[in-house]
Amino acid sequence: MRTPNNDTRSVKTGASPPARGRGPRGGRAASTSDSLADGGGPPPSPLPQAGGGATRTCILSREEAPREGLIRLALSPDGEVLPDVRAKAPGRGAWIAVNRAELEAAQAKGKLKGALSRSFKTGDVRVPEDLGARIEVQLQRNTLDRLGLEFKAGHVAIGGDRIENAARSGQLHLLLHASDASEDGARKLAQAWRVGTDREGTDLKGLTLPVPRTILSLALGRENVVHAGLTDARAAKRVSDALDRWLHFIGPDPGLEPCETHSQGASAHGNDVRPTEHDEEHTEGL
Asked: Is 132 helix (H, G, I), strand (E, B) or coil?
């Protein structure tokens, strides 16, 4: 079995500036695999379970999981520990499966530095105080970059009318809302999704992202994007994997208002609905 101690990579990456994100509404870190649009699935796992290839062991919890669901840390030439969420930095890596609160608790107690020293096989390890914030901002960027790529590929519908049409025709696989989306608008789209998948009377809903519409709009290169719907099953799975890892790390945020839009994951394959070049948001009245 491979462990963090024998992991080597050869692609260069850089560090992200510190930032503090907001957790999903509802008081917990929702998983996009909580339920499936094609009619239920396994209960959510404590860790994102992306991929089925190589596994890694968390240096703090000693829990094993597929590497795509864990977070890699790398060591800079001057001994500083940096997040490497895309696992492309050269040299030895250390992997963590814990959330931000657990990471910072271990850092405060000195356990993190000890685990990193053992993993990197050196005592010359410098852990930045804002490591948790740096990881969080990289995970957010990774998820929104993934969503932006899927939009450019024609796999994301935006605008209330387009999403509702895709939902009612059974072509919606993942429904996302900005953190400042209205509950009425989210409820209307969720109902259309339930109708389109013959799941009326169930709790099939979308997922409220821990970012407002301004950030979601920037990610997609459009103005006033409040809701987004993935209309390709494979694209929905790719976004779900990135989103699960981000939400698992940031954990619950008790400061947010409860919302009925928790989470849905990728479903069975369906027909593709491609947005036109002039997609605009029409959700303010929803």
From this structure: helix
Report the 10 Å Cβ neighbour count for 17. Answer: 9
pLDDT at 183 over 50: yes
Pairing, β 8-9 against β 91-96: antiparallel
Angstrom distance (rounded) from CA 246 to CA 234 = 19
256's tokens: 């947010």
Find, among 36, 62, 37, 27, the residue nearest to 47 by Cα.
62
Q: Which of the 8 DSSP states describes residue 27?
A: S
The Cα–Cα gap between 224 and 217 comes to 6
* Residue 250: both structure tokens together: 């940031």
Q: Taking 80 as the threshold, does the pLDDT of residue 3 lie above it?
A: no
Comparing C-alpha atoms, which of 145, 172, 146, 142 is closest to residue 275? 172
Spatial distance between the Cα atoms of 16 and 109, rounded to a whole number of angstroms: 24
* Torsion, CA 74, CA 69, CA 178, CA 210, rounded to 10: -60
